[in-house]
Amino acid sequence: MSQLLRRDAGSCLVLRPACGVRDNAYCEDSLFSKVHRIMSEQWSIYSKPVPADSRELWALFLQCSCITVLLGGLFYNWLLASLEYPWHVSVAMAVTFSLLLLLALFLVHPVRCAFSIAMPTLGTKQGRKLLLSTCIMIVVVNITPNIISNIKTLLKVILCISKNSSESLLNSTDLLGNTFWKLEHELQNYLIWKPMDGHIQFSLVKNSSLINQVHLAGEKARKDFLAVEVLVKDCVRAGNKLVAAFSVLYLCFESIWYLKNYLTNLCFDNVYITKKLRRLAEDKGASHLLVGSAPRLIRPTGLRLSREELMLCLAQALRLSVALLLVLVMVALEHLVFGVADVAVRRMAQLSTVPVTLSIKYQAGIDFLKIPFPVRDINRSYHRALTFSSASCSISPPVPPNPSVLLVVGLLFCIIYATMFLETYARRLCRKIAASFFESREDERAHYLYGKLSRQHRETQCS
Prior knowledge:
Helix content: over 70%
Distance between the termini: 81 Å
Strand content: 5-15%
Largest sheet: 2 strands, antiparallel
Strand order of the largest sheet: 1-2
Order of helices and strands: HHHHHHHHHHHEEHH
Structural class: mainly alpha
Number of helices: 13
């Protein structure tokens, strides 16, 4: 008996790890099944037309409250950060939206269904429009001001060079004046007969008026660019607000339109082999109908895409590539303008003075009996330096492109491209949500599709 016990104990020691693995697997399965049961129960409460008791009523109110708090916070952040509304307007609109949404979700069953359908609809065309609107807003708000600011920096460099060079050039007229006065005295010392008592006339232009004109032209260009920048920002903000409002309204309209067609039209989006259709065909002994019609029907849980769905995705990808190309042009233009402005600022700091030399050669002589006798040779050089830059001309460095903006825009476009291929599955999810909210209508749709398949099968046999 003791040996058996030891053997049993030994066997138990050997089998203990296997028992532990089975226990862990059992715990995982029970945990997953428990979570799945809780989620199914909560979804059943959420999709019921009327709660069965007070417990379901409070559970429904808690679900609707959590949804409205989450969406209210996201709506506030969207209004404040993306659409750039004032904070008090954003708070008022977010609170109003949350209260109305809470009442609608808690009291109206079809509104809950339409709202639930709107969530996967974000993965369809309207969701792409919202994401594309966000991308355009990010590009315009972050890239356009950089481009305009760097263009202003480039123009300021040109203005500074023009102003300094014009001042230096106009100041160099003093050199010409002094040179001509010295030449006049030299000539008067060697003239024997003076036909007229005069001077070499040389007039200096007052350079203050020209400098003021250059300065006023630069200020006018700066103000014009500032006005254009403000106008572009205002137009983009207004346009983005209109696009965002239209996209949200159209998103709601599309979900309501889908629910209305689902409830009123038995043919609408009724091409799926559902569990109810499969059970109905099995009960009537006509499972072969589903096998024969498989190429024309879609399994909701399958990953197969029809040829039409695939071609539609590719066409949408081509249209989206046009918007992506425009965004890439804006990004390339930002980098190009920054590169030019940066080179201009660095080259301006490296500009050295340009030496200018004025050489005067004059030969005086007497012509006696057609024989020239030289009297005086004048050969003098006068030096001056022209400057193109000045320490008084302060130029702010150009604004470099923000790499985080490019990263965010790239991620958003990746999501947009992914939603094109997920749109088919999002529509299948819409049908499944509508079926869970209106089970009796789903039974009618299953009977209608079964009758349609039966008629087609009989017509095929007769022909």
